[in-house]
């Protein structure tokens, strides 16, 4: 990790976590918490192993970087960051069977990292933590920031497809919908606009935004908030009808910079209205729009990187299982029914 550039905030968090850890140990009534370096004593090589595996995995398939960042978001929003996104159902009723999974990739990568850790520190490192570490490494290996990732999550063994349908905002959400979905998880407007910067890397299938191009209000019209030139390009890539060529097509969410975690997402949203209505919705609220404009004009990504680290740490605390709750399994994707 020679390229490591820890931003001051991550250092502060690491120090704070260490202090909290000491206080918690001293007080019998203190509750367990996530900590940076939770595995320092029980599996000190855990983070290094995840990083090395991620390095190899992304060398083999760079498109898994965005997928694994997205996986942490989906895991956290559905029943908390508890690794339950990995669980399987023979009846097709797991989170991974739900509509938003249609494009989720990277399950095998998490299982590969898990298998490596099981040989080194059996039954110690949770799947939820591996997903959180993989997301951090994916960002860093996409030239984004490094941050101290909190660990200590345990894994849930319950998965319900409907939770994924209900807790993940659809891409045609407006800013009011988005705020509702995120405030349920205690995330603010600032967290929203910062986390959406994740769409700086990765791709989408046409079906997530086709309506904007061909049938926005049901009158065979185009979304007027979408830049006309950009809409023309998208219509070329994604034909009107689902199926055939357009079914497999993947469109970058931040064209021209889809593998680099940087500020160009904000410039893209400001200039074109973004790929999804939910991206464009950032322009329809004074606070989120102000941030988009500021980041679109920023000369350095430093402030954004600090904000992103803080927002990811916060998202990573969503409804976690700690201490005696949950379990640490040998395999992440076990069948639960
Ligand atoms: C309202 C909130 C959000 C909506 C509606 C949304 C929607 C989507 C959609 C439709 C895709 C494309 C999937 C596909 O067709 O392949 C996508 C991809 C992605 N999303 Fe989001 N997203 C949201 C929030 C987030 C957040 C909070 C993060 C991360 C913290 C995130 C990270 C990603 C990444 C990295 C990809 C690219 C995946 C890949 O290339 O495989 N998204 N998102
Ligand atoms: C683990 O070690 C790192 C690096 O020395 C330190 O920053 C962190 O606070 C430690 N965490 C715990 C829980 O011991
Ligand atoms: C996603 O859900 C669909 C529909 O239930 C299922 O056929 C598919 O196998 C799931 N995808 C993955 C990667 O699990
Ligand atoms: C356009 O949208 C309307 C309303 O949602 C729907 O009834 C109609 O079937 C759609 N047309 C096409 C061609 O998709
Ligand atoms: C960003 O730059 C554009 C053009 O250079 C300017 O019109 C706009 O006012 C700037 N916005 C902010 C928030 O500085
Ligand atoms: C799920 O985990 C709990 C402990 O957290 C355990 O009591 C229960 O038996 C487990 N259920 C299954 C289906 O593995």
From TrEMBL:
Its main location: secreted. Belongs to the peroxidase family. Classical plant (class III) peroxidase subfamily. InterPro entries: Haem_peroxidase, Haem_peroxidase_sf, Peroxidase_pln, Secretory_peroxidase, TAT_signal. The active site is at 74 (proton acceptor). Residues 33-336 form the Plant heme peroxidase family profile domain. Pfam families: peroxidase (PF00141). Binds 1 heme b (iron(II)-protoporphyrin IX) group per subunit. The record marks 70 as: Transition state stabilizer. The keyword Thylakoid does not apply. Residues 1-24 form the signal peptide. Disulfide bonds join 43-121, 76-81, 127-332, 206-238. It is an enzyme of class 1 (oxidoreductase). This is Peroxidase. It catalyses: 2 a phenolic donor + H2O2 = 2 a phenolic radical donor + 2 H2O. Heme b binds at residue 199. Removal of H(2)O(2), oxidation of toxic reductants, biosynthesis and degradation of lignin, suberization, auxin catabolism, response to environmental stresses such as wounding, pathogen attack and oxidative stress. These functions might be dependent on each isozyme/isoform in each plant tissue. Ca(2+) 1 binds at residues 75, 78, 80, 82, 84, 95. One of its GO terms (molecular function) is metal ion binding. Ca(2+) 2 binds at residues 254, 262. It comes from Triticum urartu. GO terms for cellular component: extracellular region.
